[in-house]
Amino acid sequence: MTLSGIDRYFILLNAAAFLLFGLDAFLRSRQKSGLPSVFCLIFAAAGGSIGALLAELLWDRVPLRGADTAKAKQRRDAALSRQILSGLFVILHLFVYLVLTKRLRLGAWHLPTLTPGGITFLKWAGILLPIINLAAFLLFGIDKQLAKRGKRRISIRVLFIFALCGGSLGALCGMWGFRHKTRKPYFRYGLPLLLFLQLAAAVILLPLLEKLP
Fold first, then answer.
1. Residues 16-58: pLDDT tens digits?
2. Reported confidence tier of residue 61, pLDDT bands at 50, 70, 90
3. Range of the domain at 49
4. I need a labelling partner for 175 at 20 to 30 A (CA). Which of 23, 93, 107, 154 fits?
């Protein structure tokens, strides 16, 4: 299969971002100054968000629980903010890629004629999305109770992953319903933005269902 210039651009940029963010995480894990944040952000924003997010999830060793010092909390919040920002960029870059490669034509948007494959996809989405959103909602409630009792908490990364996998609405409802994590900017602002991007992506990508066999 021949790769187009756009394919090569995204592949090379994501590979470079993966190595760059991995190096940054390695330097920070050795208590050294990481790479300039603006420099890393440019690579992620320019199309390397998948590589950046993978590197952060695999190699970022900033403690997410059990660190009560102000410096540790600052490092943790900065790391989580980078991960959530990269996750938002992933959705945006997927949309841009589909448009640039003409796999998605905005001017030709229409309600799809559902194929058997499209119907199967919608059935599974109708089953899995409510389960994921319910789980995300309950996780916020459980974590709130664990915080009150001073017990071991649910990782913030786990909460974010459930939201990123389609549970942003449940996570948002859990955040405000249980009044939990509302002071954390990466949740307070990140979850509404993530929900908006997911809904927009779902509407825009809807015509692709008719291409499923």
1. 999 988 888 788 777 667 777 777 888 888 999 999 989 888 8
2. low
3. 1-103
4. 93
Q: Which two tokens stand for residue 85?
A: 């920002």
**157 and 72 inside one domain:** no
Q: Please check whether residues 121 and 78 belong to one and the same domain.
A: no
Q: How would you label 38-55 residue by residue, b for 16+ Cβ within 10 Å and e otherwise? A: eebeebbbebbbbbbbbb
Q: Which residue has the tokens 């090569």?
A: 8
On whether both 118 and 210 belong to a single domain, the answer is yes
CB-based burial of residue 19 (10 Å sphere; 0-12 exposed, 13-18 middle, 19+ buried)? Answer: middle
> What residues contact residue 58 under an 8 Å CB cut-off, 6+ apart?
22
Query: What angle, rounded to 10 degrees, do the helices at 116-149 and 168-177 form?
Result: 30
Amino acid at site 90: V
pTM for the full predicted model: 0.67
Contact between 137 and 174 under an 8 Å Cβ cutoff? The reply is yes
Give the residue ranges of DSSP H helices in 163-211. 168-177, 185-188, 190-204
Burial readout 182-205 (b: 16 or more C-beta within 10 A, e: otherwise)? eebebbeebbeebbebbeeeeeeb
The whole-angstrom separation of Cα 211 and Cα 22 is 37
